[in-house]
Design goal:
Elements lengths: L14 E6 L3 H8 L8 E6 L4 H7 L1 E5 L3 E5 L4 E2 L2 H5 L7 E4 L10 H5 L8 E5 L7 H6 L5 E14 L2 E14 L14 H21 L5 E3 L2 H24 L5 H5 L2 H21 L12 H10 L6 H7 L6 H14 L5 H23 L2 H7 L2
Parallel strand pairs: 1-2, 1-6, 2-5, 3-9, 6-7, 7-8, 9-10
Antiparallel strand pairs: 3-4, 8-9
Bound molecules: NADP nicotinamide-adenine-dinucleotide phosphate and 2-acetamido-2-deoxy-beta-D-glucopyranose.
The site of 2-acetamido-2-deoxy-beta-D-glucopyranose has 3 residues, from strand 4.
């Protein structure tokens, strides 16, 4: 390196970043990562809100940073439009909803991925990285887990209600979902270096104070711990007839069910993650239930998607964990039950829609 370390990218070598999925999470984190004066240039690939973003940028209403407008380097209508850029993309950051049963997003981003591209996923659930690793065997992949409360309230307007926590770590596994995990040490150290690089931009330039970088196994621990919350509350909210989290924990029968789901994952994790347990620092099921009592108002995203007739992240929140656990000889019985019921309910809903005109819209979105 000819240059002393600077705060931003190499002054002579611009850094190009593109987000795929310009929704709540994508717009918020992109807006904290666009620093042209430090030679970091961030673009968005948008779909339904493309016209609004192209005309006006993103309007952000944030709890952490106040209100501001984010004007990205470019707003692009599709991956193929982004692939026509006259430079390779250094980072492709995927912030779509993870819907592997509906959309193969690893194939979607293929035109954007050059041999030097780092792929970063910021999504809920587990097993989200595997399709990317299969499709891109030698690119660094960074796995991201965020604790944030954000929503796109109208097209092009994103509100962050609270939290900014972002955990990043490498994902090197060459294995399929249910095979023994195999960590590739070269890809792991490359991914770790990329996680540090981008995490540093978010922290030092973007002002996000709680970016944490972990190694591969620790990141998976964090991912599975976040799953205990998502897998317990999201499906139960739909199956209980549309109740909020705080409302559910006030019902003794539901509270015991939620605790059961969390404990089921808790007990299975050492078998799934090669002997590793959730550490002392991670909130216990009882603590999660207790803090949920105070968290009134918020509606779980799966309930919002269910009521809007949109696909739910069922596969990555229920299907993948159930299958990964089975591959290790563990049954997640409560989750298997919720998975079967919700998959069926979603299929019935969409089948009924197929007789009208809703189905065509869903197919059009693939
Ligand atoms: N929101 C939160 O508070 C929160 C918190 C923690 C974790 N997460 C996780 O973060 C991930 C993203 O969630 P989100 O809340 O940001 O979802 P979201 O607001 O629905 O945003 C997803 C965006 O991806 C776009 N998209 C999907 N497929 C696309 C494609 N093929 N081409 C271009 N754009 C595409 C969607 O466009 P359309 O409008 O055209 O559908 C939408 O703008 C999820 O895994 C979620 O579980 C969210
Ligand atoms: C941001 O905008 C919202 C909506 O217009 C408004 O309610 C809020 O007070 C604004 N916040 C700040 C810090 O200006």
């Amino acid at each position: 390196m000819h240059h002393a370390p600077t705060l931003g990218a190499d002054p002579e070598r611009p850094l190009y970043i593109v987000f795929v999925g310009a929704g709540a999470v994508g717009c918020f984190y992109a807006s904290r990562l666009h620093h042209p004066s430090h030679n970091i240039h961030t673009s968005l690939i948008a779909r339904s809100n493309y016209a609004t973003l192209a005309a006006n940028g993103v309007s952000l209403q944030t709890h952490t940073f106040g209100n501001y407008t984010f004007t990205p380097s470019s707003v692009l209508p599709s991956p193929s439009a982004a692939a026509a850029a006259p430079h390779p993309w250094d980072f492709v950051i995927v912030t779509t909803k993870a819907l592997p049963d509906r959309s193969d997003d690893a194939t979607l981003i293929a035109p954007l991925v050059s041999p030097t591209t780092t792929i970063l996923l910021i999504q809920n659930g587990v097993g989200v990285e595997a399709p990317y690793r299969r499709r891109f065997p030698s690119n660094p992949i960074v796995s991201g887990v965020t604790v944030i409360s954000a929503e796109q309230i109208t097209p092009g307007t994103v509100r962050q209600n609270r939290w900014t926590r972002l955990h990043l770590g490498p994902y090197s596994h060459s294995a399929d979902l249910d095979a023994e995990s195999r960590v590739d040490s070269h890809l792991e150290s490359l991914g770790l270096a990329k996680a540090h690089q981008i995490g540093d931009y978010w922290t030092r330039l973007g002002g996000i104070k709680d970016v944490e970088i972990s190694d591969e196994l620790d990141l998976q621990i964090i991912r599975w711990h976040k799953l205990t919350i998502n897998a317990a509350f999201n499906p139960s909210s739909v199956l209980s007839g549309g109740r909020t989290n705080a409302d559910m924990v006030s019902d003794p029968e539901l509270r015991s069910h939620l605790k059961g789901v969390m404990e089921e994952i808790w007990e299975a994790v050492p078998t799934i993650l090669g002997g590793r347990k959730f550490g002392e620092g991670l909130a216990s099921p009882e603590r999660i239930l207790k803090s949920t009592e105070r968290n009134v108002g918020g509606r779980p995203s799966m309930l919002v998607d269910w009521e809007a007739g949109r696909p739910m992240e069922l596969e990555v929140i229920l299907g993948n964990p159930v299958k990964i656990a089975r591959g290790r000889g563990v049954r997640l019985g409560r989750m298997e039950g919720m998975y079967a019921l919700l998959r069926s309910a979603q299929g019935r809903r969409d089948g009924e829609k197929g007789k009208g005109k809703g189905k065509g819209k869903e197919e059009g979105k693939l």
